[in-house]
Specification:
heterodimer, A: alpha+beta, 14 helices, elongated, B: alpha+beta, seven-stranded antiparallel sheet, two-stranded antiparallel sheet, 9 helices
């Protein structure tokens, strides 16, 4: 393949765009990091990726798209993709994006389809940084747009598989083949709706949200304290249902707001307690459970309610043992 | 001293027999070496020592006129761990010497460890307990039965209390020792033979000072409770705790559990901590506050005052249903007198 001439429109467009490419790359990473952080804080499990459109793609799109001013008109120069597990998380993720940025336009691809049509699904949000945040990065970030795509895993899988075959084919795809591909997207819609329905039902199960609050604690046990024992999920469920309601915050906020600082402050002490228990032959299984941090924090800051809320199926001796090891005076009821 | 951070690294155990009248003095049975104690045994003693200190440990100081031999031995161990075995034998002799015919036989556990970066020495006096053990046995014909054996030399089970204990730690100056001692056998105070005769120490703060400090701190907390009737209820409970002859020790956590409500329990404990009032049990001595606890007075917006001793208040005064901010106070008693007062 021959190289384009140095003064060709393609090269000129490519060159113009390449100058702003590093800024776009920085902006894409910034938007990704902001979204990723907030999603984690709200316990929305998602994959967040970013990219700045590469100069060759830009030049090609500019040439073929008939843009008057491609540097301004092409909207996806800075792109972030959020892939969530559940359909209901698409709305939650969009809400978070709206809170973080100055949103220009939201397009739900489903709205663009007639009721008797199927096709690509997902939500695209055009945005720019709030002026102060942009200025903090640099003057040339003010007003620069980015596009965030929010999709479910299923929507993403369909789009990834079909994008190149349908939209960038080497040869025209026969109608019958296209039809087979588009039939699949109907399954994607059905799949997401079913997943969404049973997810709601599971989350409505008593204690489910409370137990979910323990998830970051299991990670902390492994990461910071090298506890490799698989937690007893049934015990966690019972303990979480009893202790998590003692907090004023909603369950998904407890880790960041209360437990993370508590672990940071008392981590060394916990490490010592754990080592001593191991030396004694591990008489108390609670010490290796993720909910141990909830228990220790509550014993430190609300010991009466910890005692009164103690779940019946769990031996009370375990509570007193933990209290003794933690140095909290807890009297028998 | 942070006794809940006491880390025990070595221990040695000596038997201290009793001194029954009419029997020949036998002296302690001494271990000649510390022996290898498994980690779980060491950790167990460490935890029991910490717990008894948390529950009942009181700061002690060397008594100016006291026998210094025990604290000298402790200081020697802390200064040079090579003296651990020999000095622990001295401690066993001193305990035996301090006991009289009323003290039962038991063991003395001497532990060497550390609190933070300072050496620390722990002492525990334990007494034998009785228990039973059931073991599966078989007859000659192969029939299974449970054989029960009485064990009379048990020392420490999960349910038994650690009897007498002390922890010492040098305080920068090698001549100064920080000490904490506890006694779970004597309801009112540390047994004199253990505190004075054996340790050669006395309490850092007298029970009267501790009681006064506790009372003042609790009163200052109760004064902040916004609801007047709740405040009155707690105040009466405090005064009853102080005045009751049946209450010989003060347990601040027990008071919180028995008297404070859902919203006030933890703030009360926090208030004690902020004012450096320890949570452990201590002997009650109201001599310094006697005049303050004789009477309790309710004051009302109208200027009316209701005064009486706490027992009478508890038995005769109740609060009826509240109407807005207005309290309904009900006195059930026989009126015997009305008079003008200036």
């Amino acid at each position: 393949m021959s190289e384009p001439a140095a003064d060709s429109p393609y090269v000129r467009l490519r060159q113009q765009y390449a100058e702003r490419y590093p800024r776009n790359e920085q902006l894409a990473e910034h938007v990704r990091a902001e979204i990723d952080r907030e999603l984690r804080r709200h316990a929305i499990y998602a994959t967040v990726t970013h990219r700045a459109k590469d100069p060759d793609s830009f030049a090609t799109k500019a040439m073929l798209g008939g843009y008057d001013n491609p540097l301004e008109d092409i909207g996806d120069q800075v792109g972030v993709r959020v892939t969530v597990s559940y359909l209901s998380d698409v709305d939650r993720a969009e809400q978070i994006v709206r809170e973080l940025f100055d949103v220009i336009r939201v397009e739900d691809k489903l709205d663009a389809l007639d009721f008797d049509k199927v096709g690509y699904l997902g939500r695209h949000v055009d945005l720019r940084l709030h002026e102060d945040a942009a200025r903090a990065l640099g003057e040339d970030f003010v007003g620069t747009r980015a596009e965030v795509q929010i999709r479910t895993t299923a929507q993403s899988a369909w789009a990834d598989v079909t994008h190149d075959q349908l939209y960038k084919p080497a040869a025209d795809v026969p109608k019958e083949l296209k039809r087979r591909v588009f039939r699949l997207v109907a399954l994607v819609e059905l799949f997401d709706q079913e997943v969404s329905a049973f997810t709601h039902e599971i989350q409505a199960t008593p204690g489910f949200a409370d137990a979910a609050a323990l998830r970051p604690l299991a990670e902390a046990l492994l990461r910071d304290f090298d506890v490799r024992r698989k937690p007893d999920r049934e015990l966690s469920f019972v303990m979480a249902a009893a202790l998590v309601p003692l907090y004023d915050q909603p369950p998904h906020e407890i880790y960041e707001a209360v437990l993370k600082p508590f672990i940071a402050e008392h981590g060394e002490r916990f490490r010592r307690v754990l080592a001593e228990a191991v030396a004694e032959g591990d008489p108390n299984p609670l010490l290796h459970q993720p909910e141990i941090f909830v228990l220790l924090e509550r014993l430190t800051n609300d010991r009466l309610h910890t005692k009164t809320a103690w779940p019946h199926p769990v031996p009370e001796e375990w509570l007193h043992d933990v209290a003794d090891r933690w140095g909290t005076r807890l009297l028998d009821a | 001293m942070k006794t809940d951070e006491f880390l025990l690294s070595r221990l040695i155990i000596h038997r201290v027999p009793d001194k029954k009248a009419g029997t020949e003095a036998r002296g302690p049975v001494l271990s000649q070496v510390a022996g290898e104690h498994p980690d779980d045994v060491r950790a167990y003693f460490q935890r029991r020592l910490r717990k008894v200190m948390k529950d009942r440990g009181q700061d002690v100081v060397i008594a100016p006129d006291g026998d210094k031999r025990t604290t000298d031995a402790v200081r020697a161990i802390a200064a040079d761990p090579r003296l651990f075995v020999e000095q622990s034998k001295t401690l066993a002799h001193l305990l035996y010497e301090a006991q009289d015919g009323r003290n039962p036989a038991g063991i003395l556990v001497v532990g060497l460890g550390a609190i933070g970066d300072r050496p620390a020495v722990g002492l525990l006096k334990l007494e034998n307990e009785r228990g039973v053990r059931a073991q599966e046995q078989q007859t000659e014909a192969g029939e299974t039965f449970l054989q029960v054996t009485i064990l009379s030399d048990l020392l420490l089970t999960d349910r038994t209390k650690v009897f007498k204990a002390a922890v010492f730690c040098p305080d920068g100056d090698p001549q100064t020792l920080l000490g904490v001692a506890a006694d779970e056998q004597v309801e009112r105070n540390l047994a004199s033979f253990f505190l004075r005769e054996f340790l050669g120490c006395e309490l850092r703060s007298s029970p009267a000072v501790q009681t006064e400090r506790y009372f003042g701190t609790v009163e200052s907390y109760l004064g902040q409770i916004p609801d007047a009737e709740e405040r009155a209820r707690c105040e009466i409970a405090l005064l009853n705790q102080m005045q009751s002859r049946l209450v010989r020790t003060i347990d601040p956590v027990q008071f919180a559990d028995d008297v404070l409500g859902d919203e006030t329990h933890q703030p009360f404990l926090d208030h004690l901590r902020e004012n450096r009032v320890p949570e452990h049990v201590f002997p009650k001595d109201i001599s310094a506050i006697e005049n303050r606890i004789k009477r309790v007075a309710y004051g009302f917006e109208s200027g009316i005052q209701l005064m009486g001793n706490p027992d009478a208040m508890r038995d005769h005064v109740t609060f009826g249903k509240k109407e807005g901010d207005t309290s309904r106070v009900i006195i059930k008693d026989k009126m015997v007198d009305v008079r003008a007062r200036s």
